[in-house]
């Protein structure tokens, strides 16, 4: 099942829900249980780059 993004106009809650395509317009807000608005109408792919976390670091040990 596809995942849709929703926003509740009543309380402003944004959430994602995995629903059937036929039921995507029947999703309610988990907070106030009012009808939420479907945000995603078209697939938009955002490219994300995951930077590798390098374990680096040099330490200066000061003797004292
Ligand atoms: Zn709400």
Concise synopsis of the structure shown:
With 64 residues, the chain is mainly β. Helices cover 0% and strands 19% of the residues. It has a domain of 36 residues.
Instruction: Tell me which ligands are bound.
Output: zinc ion
The chain-level mean pLDDT equals 78
**SSE order:** EEE
Helical residues, percent: under 10%
Per DSSP, what share of the residues sits in E-state strands of 2 or more residues? 15-25%
Number of helices: 0
How many angstroms separate the termini?
63 Å
Shape: elongated
Low-confidence stretches: none
Structural class: mainly beta
Counted beta strands = 3
Order of strands across the biggest sheet?
Answer: 2-1-3
| Gyration radius from CA atoms, angstroms | 21 Å
Largest sheet: 3 strands, antiparallel
Structure, explained:
The protein is 0% helix and 19% strand. The model has no long low-confidence stretch (mean pLDDT 78). It has no helices and three strands. It is elongated and about 65 Å long. By secondary structure, the protein is mostly beta strands. Strands 2-1-3 form a three-stranded antiparallel beta sheet, with no helix packed on it. It has a domain of 36 residues. It binds zinc ion (ZN). The site of zinc ion (ZN) has 8 residues, from loops. Zinc ion (ZN) binds next to loops.
